[in-house]
TrEMBL record:
Its EC number is 5.3.1.23. Belongs to the EIF-2B alpha/beta/delta subunits family. MtnA subfamily. Homodimer. The active site is at D240. This is Methylthioribose-1-phosphate isomerase. The record marks C160 as: Transition state stabilizer. Gene3D superfamilies: translation initiation factor eif-2b, domain 1, Translation initiation factor eif-2b, domain 2. GO terms for molecular function: S-methyl-5-thioribose-1-phosphate isomerase activity. Pathway: Amino-acid biosynthesis; L-methionine biosynthesis via salvage pathway; L-methionine from S-methyl-5-thio-alpha-D-ribose 1-phosphate: step 1/6. SUPFAM superfamilies: NagB/RpiA/CoA transferase-like. Substrate binds at R51, G52, A53, R94, Q199, N250, K251. Catalyzes the interconversion of methylthioribose-1-phosphate (MTR-1-P) into methylthioribulose-1-phosphate (MTRu-1-P). Keywords: Amino-acid biosynthesis, Isomerase, Methionine biosynthesis.
Amino acid sequence: MTNTLSLPRSVEWEETHITLLDQQLLPGKVEYIELKTIKDVWDAIVTLKVRGAPAIGMTAAFGLALAAQQYETDSIDEFNELLQKDKDYLASSRPTAVNLFWALERMVNSITNVTSINEAKTTLVHEAIRIQVEDEEVCYKIGDNALSLFKKDDRVMTICNAGSIATAYYGTALAPFHLSRERDIPLQVYACETRPVLQGSRLTAWELQQSGVDVTLITDNMAAHTIKTKQINAIIVGADRIAANGDTANKIGTYGLALLAKAFHIPFYVAAPLSTFDPTIASGEEIPIEERNPEEVTHLHGQQIAPDGIAVFNPAFDVTPNELITAIITDRGILKGNYQEGIQTLFNN
Ligand SMILES: CSC[C@H]1O[C@H](OP(=O)(O)O)[C@H](O)[C@@H]1O
């Protein structure tokens, strides 16, 4: 895997703190902040300074490792109690992306057999780094598999940001676009701005520009007209949680794009690592959908754009039923057809 790209990285472990790209300041400012406490990490996840399912999981893993370095106890049992408390605290930051809970569970399980406090502290750091390194390798494979579904000059639509800054590197839905630059398979990307937090205009448009990908920004309500008039060939999106039957939670607006894909008879792809699957839930009905601060809808960069006292519904995600998904692209291959069986096979091997 030769990395000739120079994409921004969302998070880095620095021993005494975590360095984080503050995604709330993009695209105007490319600024990195230092997270020195577990509260800093929790706040960064809640306020979307770091966002994107895999990036949330990685950052929480680093946050748990950082907190554990400060534990002052000689008892392994007490160490584990402190770790469980901090794990539960970080797990309270956001409810939908299963990567957060997957990463935290993996971190706690990593010290099951340690015999000393120092070994526990070192193991936690190494496990968090392993999660990040593995995610970069996984995203490369997702990009490789996704690119096989596109041909030269295809016009592809996407929503939100499932890019390099939402993962360890490369991204999931955006990975094929970054790799297409390296392999001279020019693609045209149409990025939905993704109200209300604007991950599409602020992050995806910026990220794809950084790697020289041909990207055009549209507002979310332009999607149908754009698919028709620009003859979009396919839609590809990320995921925050995929149920055992393939129902997929992703950024609000994704379900609408899936319905448009069906109406226009074009493929609708979901790109995701195995850490975004939740085989413990049967269907999308069980996926918790985060509802966020109404001010994300009533204000734009601090400017009020709706009347005082207006009622607001601000779900951050929606669930696309599996029957609207043409294929789920993973690092282990491309799932099509009976997702229940395909996902079961993925997790049994
Ligand atoms: C590979 S990122 C997956 C996913 O996360 C984003 O949500 P948010 O920006 O609220 O964290 C979006 O749904 C992406 O598709």
